[in-house]
């Protein structure tokens, strides 16, 4: 009866894991066994979990066989090697009682490649399931299509030099064209794209912008949370006010590039200050965009842009130039904003109680203004005098300014802000207060 004597072999663990034959003989062999289901995917429906496991199998096989578009051929085996390795010795006993050792050999399989995307190692990182699910969702959970998209993205990143740390230093040339500011009501980071900055751009400037925009996107993506349950998408706001027009391709090119190589990274794509020619641009873009992408679009003309933003982004997080109160000053995003509708042909008075010895600060704005504004302090003592802090004045619609002011309180009383709306339209009023003890 034969006994098996297992001998220790260097790198045995790696060899034991290499269960596929060499690349030249394995293109259509039996598939690898499926790995245990990751905890991050346990919340998925059964069909989506199956698609995720199939995609991981395709990726694992491609990494083992070096068949990705970015793969480099595995190193050839040594010339004196037979491409095998002894992994065990079997002790045999013949009929005469003589004992011999028989070597058991196994084909050596090249070490699997590693691949990363968006700063996440594929198959080796707990966050990789979230990344792979983005490609699956972009391709309706068809594993082969998702794998092809992932492979194409890896190839584009290599050709574009996305992960090249020696890329030219970031320039502030386009910081007014694209910037991050605050978060949406659902916690997504918000990116603003201002296309009027390209009215005078030439071909070279557009080339520089596209490279810069990719670097900016990559930097933004690295700050997302790819753990299960984390925020891994961005709200994109596209300001088309005074933008070049439908015959310029910056917008189309950027949207197409990000759709192809950053799938499912957009929670909402909001277009504001949309001009008359947008219908023509939309017709040009439509064939390049999937239905899933188009379902995330929100479009608003100049008169409805602020309201459209407020539906997804709070006033305290919306930049002042877009109707909100977010700007550098005494207030922070954590300081909540009150929103009130001022009826047509009416006035609205905001009262804020204050105490002696404090300094009260306030910010206020009316979307579209065409409203008169004034501020005064009324003491609690009936014998005291009302103090005019800001004389009532009319603020025009084109000014779109945020009123920022403060007052050192000398007596207990209340601050009154008065807004007179003489127009026939309702006006949205935004305001907030903050007090601190005077130094």
Summed up:
The protein is α+β, with helices and mostly antiparallel strands and 439 residues long. The chain contains 9 helices and 18 strands. The chain is elongated and about 100 Å long.
Descriptive report:
There is one protein chain. The protein is α+β, with helices and mostly antiparallel strands. It has three domains: 3-74 and 110-156, no CATH class; 178-313, CRAL-TRIO lipid binding domain (Phosphatidylinositol Transfer Protein Sec14p); 338-437, GOLD domain (Jelly Rolls), CATH 2.60.120. Helix content is 24%, strand content 28%. The protein is built from nine helices and 18 strands. The chain has helices at residues 12-17, 46-65, 128-138, 143-160, 203-222, 250-261, 278-285, 291-294, 305-312, and strands spanning 3-5, 84-93, 99-107, 116-117, 120-121, 178-183, 189-194, 234-239, 266-272, 297-299, 338-342, 346-354, 358-366, 371-379, 387-395, 403-408, 413-421, 427-437. The strands form five sheets. The chain has a five-stranded mixed β-sheet with strand order 6-7-8-9-10, sandwiched between helices. The protein has a four-stranded antiparallel β-sheet with strand order 11-18-13-16, with no helix packed on it. A four-stranded antiparallel β-sheet has the order 12-17-14-15, with no helix packed on it. β2 (84-93) and β3 form a beta hairpin. The longest helix is centred in the first third of the chain and has 20 residues, at 46-65. The N and C termini lie far apart (95 Å).
């Amino acid at each position: 009866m034969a006994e098996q004597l297992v001998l220790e072999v260097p790198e045995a663990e790696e060899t034991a894991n290499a269960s596929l034959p060499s690349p030249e003989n394995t293109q259509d062999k039996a598939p690898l066994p499926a790995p245990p289901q990751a905890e991050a995917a346990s919340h998925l429906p059964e069909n989506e979990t199956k698609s995720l496991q199939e995609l991981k199998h395709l990726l694992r096989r491609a990494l083992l066989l070096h068949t990705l578009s970015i793969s480099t051929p595995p190193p050839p085996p040594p010339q004196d090697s037979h491409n095998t390795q002894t992994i065990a010795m079997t002790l045999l006993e013949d009929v005469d009682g003589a004992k011999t050792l028989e070597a058991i050999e196994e084909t050596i399989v090249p070490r699997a490649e590693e691949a990363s995307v968006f700063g996440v190692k594929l198959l080796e990182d707990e966050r990789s399931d979230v990344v792979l699910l983005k490609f699956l969702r972009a391709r309706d959970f068809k594993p082969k299509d998702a794998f092809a998209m992932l492979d194409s993205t890896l190839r584009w990143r290599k050709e574009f030099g996305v992960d090249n740390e020696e890329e030219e230093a970031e320039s502030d040339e386009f910081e007014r064209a694209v910037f991050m500011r605050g978060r949406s009501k659902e916690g997504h980071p918000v990116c603003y794209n201002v296309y009027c900055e390209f009215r005078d751009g030439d071909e070279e400037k557009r080339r520089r912008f596209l490279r810069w925009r990719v670097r900016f996107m990559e930097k933004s993506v690295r700050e997302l949370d790819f753990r299960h349950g984390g925020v891994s998408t961005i709200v994109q706001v596209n300001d088309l006010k005074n933008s070049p027009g439908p015959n310029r391709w910056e917008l189309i090119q950027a949207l197409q590039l990000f759709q192809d190589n950053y799938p499912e990274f957009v929670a909402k794509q909001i277009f504001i200050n949309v001009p008359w020619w947008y219908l023509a641009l939309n017709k040009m873009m439509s064939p390049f965009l999937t239905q899933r992408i188009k379902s995330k679009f929100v479009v608003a003309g100049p008169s409805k842009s602020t309201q459209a933003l407020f539906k997804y982004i709070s006033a305290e997080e919306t930049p002042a130039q877009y109707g909100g109160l977010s700007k550098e000053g005494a207030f922070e995003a954590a300081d909540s904003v009150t929103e009130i509708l001022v009826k047509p042909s009416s006035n609205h008075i905001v009262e804020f109680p204050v105490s002696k010895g404090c300094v009260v600060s306030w910010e206020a704005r009316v979307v579209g203004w065409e409203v008169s504004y004034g501020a005064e302090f009324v003491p609690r003592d009936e014998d005291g005098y009302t103090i005019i802090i800001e004389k009532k004045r009319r603020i025009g619609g084109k000014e779109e300014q945020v009123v920022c002011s403060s007052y050192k309180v000398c007596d207990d009383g209340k601050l009154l802000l008065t807004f007179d709306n003489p127009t026939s339209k309702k006006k949205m009023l935004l305001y907030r207060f903050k007090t601190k003890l005077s130094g």
